[in-house]
Design brief:
12 helices; 9 strands
């Protein structure tokens, strides 16, 4: 286990923690390398995964102290795009990821959160994209993923003005799907992870790896892709799950607040 990124397997759930609390879990080169290793590990041994930040903050983004060193005359040139393979593995791998967000979810931290499929934020969370104020630009896929969540207008506003969003605003703007009281993000994330891990693995894969690609296609190509995906995930597991429902071995869907499947 890396000192910079913790890893714990709780049954079928991989729990991955950014572990630089004294730096608000800012991501430097060593951290992204460690994160890549642990995300890759989760692909092999888990059915769902959670990413969180040790300490009060999820992630304050890029380690600007390390960036400043790379900007010094004569320093090795910083390699851009280092985060993309790791975040793409989170976003389009075979394991669904949930982020448990507390405190700062800023810059690259928001890019990391946007790569996860479900985002749970507690009441302490706040969200910002301060890159313009620092004279830099997003570099972890945010121009694609965050913009697709927010839309251009809202992302441009955040970047140009340095606007900080409350957790209520973040939920309204689709940066998180669940808001919980302070201290409750991990418990809710684990609850959701266990539900997700119980799904058919091929369907989870299709939702994570194939569904995002449909939005890149034309209408007709998207429908064609949908047909291919549907055929590829159907199998014995799907048949048994359908049979269980038809034979009333599992409860039907019910309105929120009533017992039964969610």
């Amino acid at each position: 286990m890396s000192a910079l990124v913790s890893y714990e397997l709780r049954g079928d759930i991989a729990v991955i923690g950014l572990n630089r609390p004294d730096k608000r879990n800012a991501i430097n080169n060593a951290t992204i390398a460690a994160l890549h290793e642990q995300v890759q590990r989760s692909q092999e041994e888990a059915k769902a995964a959670i990413i969180f930040g040790h300490g009060p903050h999820f992630c304050a983004g890029l380690d600007l102290a390390e960036l400043m060193e790379s900007m010094q005359p004569g320093a090795p040139r910083r390699q851009r795009g280092r985060w993309h393979p790791t975040f793409d593995m989170i976003a389009r791998g075979k394991v669904p990821f949930i982020s448990a967000i507390t405190g700062a979810c800023v810059g690259g931290g928001l890019e990391l959160a946007s790569a996860t499929h479900v985002r749970v934020a507690d009441a302490t969370a706040f969200f910002a994209l301060p890159e313009a104020r620092r004279g830099i630009f997003v570099g972890g896929g945010g121009s694609v993923r965050i913009q697709r969540l927010l839309g251009y207008g809202r992302m441009a506003d955040m970047m140009l003005t340095g606007r900080v969003l409350s957790v209520a605003e973040a939920e309204r703007f689709d940066l998180c799907q669940y808001v919980v009281p302070a201290g409750g993000a991990m418990a809710r994330a684990e609850e959701l992870a266990r539900i997700i891990a119980d799904n058919a693995p091929l369907t989870n894969w299709a939702i994570c790896a194939a569904l995002p690609r449909v939005t890149d296609l034309s209408h007709d190509d998207g429908l064609f892709m949908e047909s291919l995906i549907g055929a590829s995930v159907s199998g014995s597991d799907g048949m048994e799950r359908v049979r269980a429902f038809v034979e009333k071995k599992v409860p039907p869907l019910r309105p929120p607040g009533q017992s039964g499947e969610i």
